């Protein structure tokens, strides 16, 4: 397959390397409009050279995988529109929700797919990427998408599952996205505010606050008719705190490196959804204000 990958952060670089390993024709797209190829090394494998920003090649791409942060989605894909065939499926893979809803309506003619992953990757240097944790990727339809053929999507899921397993189709991707958003809305702001690794949130000092944050999330999930129980949110949050105990969350890293955070697409999305149902989420609101103050 010819596959375009937009954004070469840790997850984009991981997918690019995995595509290359099984001989797909992969092209990277970056913010810098450089045409100089990038050399990427995944773990201890042989480094490989990745073609960058070849816009003409976009028209033959059978898939565009967009791995930039929620805050960069619009800016990253806008320049590609003039070159991209409207039958090319676009898969969006990022933390948070609402970025695809914010796209201009000209994108609605494409097969738009939303994804969430528990694969973990880390870039120790510009040209290196480490696959630090095996996980799952769920993909499903965006409600804004043009209709697509089920058989095309089946083929795509099979291909993606061969590149970086496991990849599974979810008709109700919304539930998987909310599941991830619930986890991110607790771990990311707290670790950024307290400047700590994820694992520290298991300490007693955070118990009460996490419990209140989860109560507010559960009310929103109920109002939205999302089938995730209060206990599942508790279990998922603490499972991720434990399994990523040594990690600094993405929001912690964004604050530390003076980058824009995804707070508007994580906590902001939660608060906007709560407001739609006339619900208050004062503890999430307080976290969002603190993050904005230190950003
Ligand atoms: O954003 C992140 O850092 C990650 O999604 C997670 C799961 C919180 C682990 O650090």
UniProtKB/TrEMBL annotation:
- The superkingdom of the source organism is Bacteria
Q: Which Pfam families match?
A: ApbA (PF02558), ApbA_C (PF08546)
**Span of the secretion signal?**
none
Q: Start and end of every Ketopantoate reductase C-terminal domain?
A: 172-294
Which Gene Ontology BP terms does the record give?
pantothenate biosynthetic process
Enzyme Commission (EC) number: 1.1.1.169
Q: What are the entry keywords?
A: NADP, Oxidoreductase, Pantothenate biosynthesis
- Please state the pathway this protein functions in, per its UniProt record: Cofactor biosynthesis; (R)-pantothenate biosynthesis; (R)-pantoate from 3-methyl-2-oxobutanoate: step 2/2
Cross-referenced InterPro entries:
6-PGluconate_DH-like_C_sf (IPR008927), 6PGD_dom2 (IPR013328), ApbA (IPR003710), Ketopantoate_reductase (IPR050838), KPA_reductase (IPR013752), KPR_N (IPR013332), NAD(P)-bd_dom_sf (IPR036291)
Specify the Ketopantoate reductase N-terminal domain's residue ranges. Answer: 3-142
**Enzyme class, one word?**
oxidoreductase
Role according to the record: Catalyzes the NADPH-dependent reduction of ketopantoate into pantoic acid.
Q: What is this protein called?
A: 2-dehydropantoate 2-reductase
């Amino acid at each position: 397959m010819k596959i375009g990958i937009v954004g070469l952060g840790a997850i984009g670089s991981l997918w690019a390397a995995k595509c290359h390993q099984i001989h797909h024709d992969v092209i990277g797209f970056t913010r810098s409009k450089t045409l100089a190829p990038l050399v990427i090394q995944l773990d201890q494998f042989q480094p490989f050279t990745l073609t960058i920003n070849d816009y003409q090649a976009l028209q033959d791409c059978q898939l565009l995988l967009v791995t930039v942060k929620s805050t960069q989605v619009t800016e990253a894909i806008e320049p590609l529109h003039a070159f991209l065939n409207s039958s090319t499926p676009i898969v969006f893979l990022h933390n948070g929700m609402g970025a695809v809803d914010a796209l201009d309506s000209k994108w609605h003619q494409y097969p738009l797919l939303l994804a969430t992953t528990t694969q973990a990757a880390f870039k120790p240097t510009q040209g290196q990427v480490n696959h630090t944790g095996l996980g799952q990727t769920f993909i499903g339809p965006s409600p804004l998408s043009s209709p697509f053929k089920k058989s095309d999507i089946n083929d795509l899921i099979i291909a993606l599952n061969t590149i970086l397993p496991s990849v599974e189709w979810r008709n109700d991707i919304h539930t998987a996205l909310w599941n991830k958003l619930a986890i991110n809305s607790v771990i990311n702001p707290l670790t950024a505010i307290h400047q700590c690794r994820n694992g520290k949130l298991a300490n007693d000092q955070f118990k009460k606050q996490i419990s209140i944050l989860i109560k507010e999330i559960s009310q929103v999930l109920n109002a939205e008719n999302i089938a995730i129980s209060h206990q599942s949110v508790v279990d998922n949050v603490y499972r991720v705190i434990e399994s990523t105990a040594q990690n600094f969350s993405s929001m912690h890293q964004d604050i530390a490196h003076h980058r824009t955070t995804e707070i508007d697409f994580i906590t902001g999305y939660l608060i906007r959804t709560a407001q739609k149902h006339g619900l208050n989420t004062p503890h999430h609101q307080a976290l969002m204000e603190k993050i904005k103050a230190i950003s």
